[in-house]
Specification:
The protein contains 21 helices and 37 strands. The radius of gyration is 27 Å and the shape is globular. By secondary structure, it is α/β, with parallel strands linked by helices. The longest helix is centred in the middle third of the chain and has 18 residues, at 375-392. It starts with a strand and ends in a 5-residue tail after the last strand.
Length: 831
């Protein structure tokens, strides 16, 4: 039962005891003007095959509306069963960033192939009706077959952009395709041909360069490496897979680098910067194009007919099919995740609806039958999908395990593929500084420092085995080589001695030290920055560099990063500075440039794919221009120290609300009875509610790095974090991000304990924890999916991202509250 409160947009459910703001219709921005005739035309190289066209026409005549709607839906493998694929005639599945067979992100390769067979068999089963169209499985193999343990992982795209080698790009594409084929998938959501303009963007490393000409020079070679030549042959007849360029269009131009944001630029900029790579993509015969989450001038791309149909399909003559990004249709004005005829009417051919496909199936069938979606548009979409499936050869190649390369596990991480990746690593390295310390002698005593030096997961970045690429161990990278392992091998072969000490405290005085530092893995909006600098905790190796240099040890700084960032202090402290980007599994490529001896060693050839900033201020002056990069053989002029003023306020804890027990800027930690009389906790010890709540400091990670809350019971008791500037967590919710609480429970768990969120007066949602088995006296990070709160809270207006509540006696210590993806224990949403 619902009780109306007499406030516009509010409704309260007595069963949940929460109030939520009713969903508001997305405002429709004024339509920007697109002039397709002013865009460059392209030539689609894939000639129609008469037999295929006849088959498509015959299938369309025989298919029911239900079968046709099923074909334009793509479901996540964790949200659909093979039997549902059969019953609903689903056209495609994908494995999202955190999805694997049986719910195991790290499932061994045979499990992937087994599941591929099950989906294919279900899709072609006509025993209970239907025409039995084979299913298409898409995967984010964006820097190699990066979801699979044992695969070769190549440098992320920004590193490939630094190497300036289009021919090598084609070899990388071919190697990636061969490894994908082993586990039975046919489609990769690559290459990303974005043109990043603001490197605060968390997806910037997915782009080859900020320069559209450089990006365009790579596109055809990667597509041809993945798909093979568009010569009329079946793609799966060779060692190839279907490619997908993304994200059409302007994702790299979003305002202030906000992921899924708005490109507030002119049509000319949209065309000449972000549209340029799509011409070679179309002319290489790319089979699919994925639209962007983002907007242009306030309008979501996936709903813009003038761009999707007018520019891409009509002006550029793209003949494949267009797919959305993950539930991106739900962001179009007037749409929800469950209903969006606007997308297909704008020219979208396939909805990536990972967990919403059932609702879309129902709504689209009704919308086709009532004319909201014209039958001609549905037939065109299905026809495009069928045409691509026929071009692949899906109708004749049989189940995945019967195809060439399937189950050939020697192909995963094959020596030839690792050699290509190692070559790419060496060519991608950019030397920014050298005062004469390079090349190093492999016969010397070499110290390697920095906590990222022996971590393949860290050097590989996001989209590595999981969406964010975090929480990985060395055992998950069989056959891989860390930076340290590559250096150690080179020094051992040269007769020298290598020592690894993450903190730089050596046992044998080194002749030189290599200090590895930089970013930790992230993906999409989780990597968005406010300023162009490393988070404070990632700057600690600077002190190691300074200490070693003060001791007279030459220092070579090696930076792991997905983007150019302010590092003037590190440049000053180092005698040589190498940008290694995110090199992937073949870390020996670094040693191939650092040392003088050996058959692989040569001068540095990498060039910056984007300008390097002088300060951390976005839009500030450049320190090094696009295209800069030393060879190592230049005259070594004296170094002029750089200013170490970042030029910005040091505020980098986006997404962190409580750290080391302290509320972060703009957030308040407070306790109350849930009704009034809030007590803000700024100093400890503190108490409230006449002593029923006591707050003290305890140690965690650092001295007094957590707060202990002792609740006496006897009535409502609330511990919460609040702000006067509500935040929008809709994209995090859509991305299955978690509310993370690092805590230690120190008493019995109350039967009414809950953790919730708030979105204004009388607007809350909570998850009960009484049935959850939470250990006591153990520090752990508890994660609750944000979507658990989205059923009753307005995730666009969160002013209380954390609210712990109980009426009973309870003691708990809390160190950190944030949003993220890595937890020791994830709480399931209530049913």
């Amino acid at each position: 039962m619902k009780i109306m409160l007499g406030l516009a947009g509010l409704a309260c459910t007595t069963t949940a005891a929460v109030c939520a703001q009713a969903p508001q219709a997305k405002p429709v921005a004024p339509a920007p003007t697109i002039h397709p005739a002013l865009w460059p035309s392209a030539t689609w190289p894939v000639r129609p095959i008469a037999a295929d066209e006849a088959r498509i026409a015959d299938l369309l005549k025989r298919m029911t509306v239900e079968e046709k709607v099923g074909q334009i839906l793509q479901a996540n493998i964790t949200d659909i069963t093979p039997d549902e694929v059969r019953r609903y005639h689903i056209g495609s599945v994908l494995n999202g960033g955190n999805a694997g067979p049986g719910g195991d992100d790290y499932a061994p390769p045979p499990k992937w192939l087994e599941l591929a067979d099950r989906f294919w068999i279900a899709s072609t089963d006509t025993s209970q009706g239907g025409v039995g169209i084979p299913i298409l499985w898409g995967t984010d193999a964006v820097h190699g077959h990066s979801n699979i343990i044992g695969a070769t992982l190549f440098p992320q795209n920004i590193g490939l952009g630094a190497m300036r080698d289009p021919a090598l790009i084609a070899r990388i594409g071919a190697a990636t395709a061969a490894e994908i084929r082993t586990t039975g998938q046919e489609w990769t959501f690559a290459p990303t041909i974005t043109v990043p303009q603001d490197y605060r963007w968390g997806r910037a490393y997915e782009g080859y360069s900020s320069n559209p000409d450089l990006v365009a020079s790579y596109v055809q070679n990667m597509i041809l490496g993945l798909q093979g030549a568009p010569d009329g042959s079946r793609i799966l007849a060779g060692p190839h897979v279907l490619a997908s360029t993304k994200h059409f269009i302007g994702d790299g131009g979003t305002f202030e680098g906000h992921d899924q944001g708005d490109a507030r630029i002119s049509e000319t900029e949209l065309r000449d910067i972000h549209g340029k790579p799509y011409i070679p993509a179309v002319e290489a015969g790319v089979g699919t194009v994925m639209t962007s989450f983002s907007s242009w001038q306030g309008r979501k791309i996936a709903g813009e007919k003038a761009l999707v149909t007018g520019v891409l399909k009509s002006r550029m003559h793209f003949g494949g099919f267009v797919v959305t990004d993950w539930n991106a249709h739900g962001q179009i004005a007037g749409c929800t995740n469950e209903s969006c005829p606007q997308a297909i009417n704008a020219g979208i051919d396939m909805y990536m609806a990972p967990d919403t496909w059932r609702s879309l199936y129902t709504s689209l069938i009704a919308q086709v039958k009532d004319g909201t979606v014209p039958m001609a548009r549905l037939d065109d979409a299905v026809g495009r999908i069928l045409r691509v499936k026929l071009r692949l050869g899906l109708f004749e190649v049989g189940k995945p395990s019967s195809r060439a390369l399937a189950g050939d596990w020697s192909m995963l991480g094959a020596p030839a593929h690792r050699a290509i990746a190692r070559e790419a690593v060496a060519k991608s390295l950019v030397l920014l500084k050298d005062t004469g310390v390079l090349p190093l002698k492999p016969s010397a005593n070499i110290l390697v420092a920095g906590d990222g030096a022996d971590d393949v997961g860290r050097q590989s970045g996001g989209w590595t085995l999981s969406w964010q690429g975090t929480g990985l161990s060395a055992s998950m990278f069989p056959g891989a080589t860390s930076l340290w392992a590559g250096i150690k091998a080179a020094v051992s072969a040269g007769g020298g001695h290598a020592e690894y000490a993450p903190d730089g405290h050596f046992t044998k005085r080194p002749d030189a030290a290599i200090v590895v530092f930089g970013e930790t893995p992230y993906a999409e909006f989780q990597g968005d920055l406010r300023t162009l600098q490393l988070r404070p905790e990632l700057r600690r190796p600077l002190e190691t560099m300074r200490r070693l240099k003060a001791a007279g040890v030459p220092v070579v700084a090696v930076m792991l990063t997905g983007r150019p960032l302010f590092v003037n202090p590190e440049l000053n402290a180092a005698d040589a500075f190498v940008v290694a980007w995110l090199p992937g599994t073949e870390g020996a490529g670094l040693a191939d440039r650092l040392f003088a001896a050996g058959p692989r060693n040569a001068s540095f050839t990498g060039k910056l794919p984007a300008a390097w900033p002088m300060t951390a201020r976005p839009g500030g002056p450049d320190l090094y221009p696009f295209g800069y990069g030393l060879s190592g053989g230049e005259h070594h002029a004296a170094w002029t120290p750089l200013s170490e003023d970042a030029g910005v306020v040091d505020d980098s804890n986006t997404g962190v609300y409580l750290a080391a027990g302290v509320a972060q800027p703009s957030w308040s930690l407070q306790v109350s009875d849930g009704v009034g009389g809030n007590t803000r906790i700024t100093t400890v010890p503190a108490q409230a509610l006449n002593g029923r709540i006591k707050v003290t400091a305890i140690d965690y990670d650092v001295q007094e790095g957590a707060r202990r809350f002792s609740l006496a019971g006897g009535g409502a008791q609330v511990v919460e974090l609040t702000t006067h500037a509500p935040i929008d967590l809709r994209r995090e919710t859509n991305g299955d991000v978690l509310l993370l609480t690092t805590m230690r429970i120190e008493s019995a768990v109350p039967t009414d304990l809950s953790i919730g969120m708030g979105c204004g007066p009388e607007c809350r949602a909570s998850v009960p924890l009484q049935s959850t088995k939470l250990p006591t006296d153990l520090w752990q990070t508890i994660g609750i999916p944000l979507k658990c709160f989205a059923t009753t809270a307005d995730m666009a207006k969160i002013d209380t991202p954390f609210r712990l509540s109980t009426t009973q006696r309870f003691q708990v210590s809390i160190a950190r509250v944030a949003v993220g993806t890595v937890a020791d224990k994830v709480i399931a949403c209530p049913r």
